[in-house]
């Protein structure tokens, strides 16, 4: 990576717009995530937060604006999108594991096909990441025989096995039973403590308060308020933020 890329924010978004038909979902978003920073994005359903996250690796195609990932404009048609995506780990609400592959194969298939790693190397990386998420010894289990929390931890380990520079989490605990949420958040806390750059769309206010470096509140396709999570959660400045937090805290 070049020095200029390291000096640039991990993610820089400028005047981003996105509509689905006549529905304007993002209305001129300006936003950045610095290297090593954990940014938590909160807001009501339909506020545009997941669409914003999905635009960052072009799972959604923006209508206009700029998205720079480590200084590279990913909307530029000349950009090698696969090369950029290889540096961005993504964890979804639904775990998106391959049901016909055991845990180990789920973690090694992209390493071998995309990263060109040997089977031996891919297995070593996979085992190390399964240990990191507390699932050593589950290599031969199929996803259907794991709890939702275990499946989500496998999904995180799979993303980590690609050696990303940053991780995007789209409401990673929202599909889980409440008692399974803690294990997934614990893994995310560990990653944050190791300095992983993270953008997290979440309903988990405790996680945002404890782990986040910045909290962004979105509503109606705009950023209403952003700042230190502890300050925003304790003393929101905007009326819309106050109304939202009064319902969720």
Automatic annotation (TrEMBL):
Enzyme kind, highest EC tier: translocase
GO cellular component: plasma membrane
GO molecular function annotations of the record: ATP binding; ATP hydrolysis activity; ATPase-coupled polar amino acid-transporter activity
Substrates-to-products reaction catalysed: a polar amino acid(out) + ATP + H2O = a polar amino acid(in) + ADP + phosphate + H(+)
Keyword Nucleotide-binding (UniProt): yes
Boundaries of every ABC transporter domain copy: 11-245
The protein's Enzyme Commission number: 7.4.2.1
Keywords: Amino-acid transport, ATP-binding, Cell membrane, Membrane, Nucleotide-binding, Transport
Gene3D superfamilies: P-loop containing nucleotide triphosphate hydrolases
Spans through the membrane: none
InterPro entries listed in its UniProt record: AAA+_ATPase, ABC_ATPase_HisP-typ, ABC_transporter-like_ATP-bd, ABC_transporter-like_CS, MetN_ABC_transporter-like, P-loop_NTPase
SUPFAM superfamilies recorded: P-loop containing nucleoside triphosphate hydrolases
Subcellular location: Cell membrane
Protein topology in the membrane: Peripheral membrane protein
Family: Belongs to the ABC transporter superfamily.
Record's protein name: ABC-type polar-amino-acid transporter
